Amino acid sequence: MSRTKVVAIPVLGRHAVNAYLLLGRHPVIVDAGTPGSGRRITEQIAAHGVDPQDVRLVVVTHGHIDHFGSAAELRRLTGAPIAAHAADLGPFRTGRVREPYLPTGPMGRLMARNPKLHEQVEPFEPDVLVRGETGLADFGVDARIIPTPGHTAGSISVLTDDGDLVAGDLIANSFMGLIKGRPANPPFHDDPLANLASLRTMLDLKPTRLHVGHGTPLDPARAERWATAEQRRLTRRAARGRLRVRA
User: What is the largest CA-CA distance in the chain?
Assistant: First the structure.
């Protein structure tokens, strides 16, 4: 087994939106950022000494346009196939997210008004259709894709054999990464309780670090404490009938 290194690739701001480069026997990209960011991602990959043409796979964690917006462009730039979950095929094939967004708090309610989040982006058809756990050894990294539904129906995470969890939007830093190291919800969840269950399942696997789509890496112990408090909060909201869930 070779060591898999996880490298953050900022797409928007310093850490507001991240893609990731996994460095093993061959490089793999996780997430494709906002529309039009393919060149920025490949330039940063090259700055880390990786020829973009050597990338073996692009993994898209879910069907929100800040994560799949440049997937089709990255496939053209790298020649690498795209892996994504079957349950989010609708957004991938149409280039549109499922509407309406379901905010998790004030930040989400504000962001839901941003017209850029409602645009149609370049669609794509996944080359590797994920339905369950999927090993990535054949693509050059000692890691596996694990379905983690809740944020969207087709959300997935990548867990390396070294214990690094590239978690997509399972969890985030507060205020889209502005408050580093403080666990929080991302702006939207389709099913908050299902997402929390997926997060706790991943934490039960004892990852060493959580690499998130919005913000800097999170400490698993701190994420566990946050998840316990969040479980209580969501249970209260559900009991009052105030928890929105996408049908």
Answer: 53
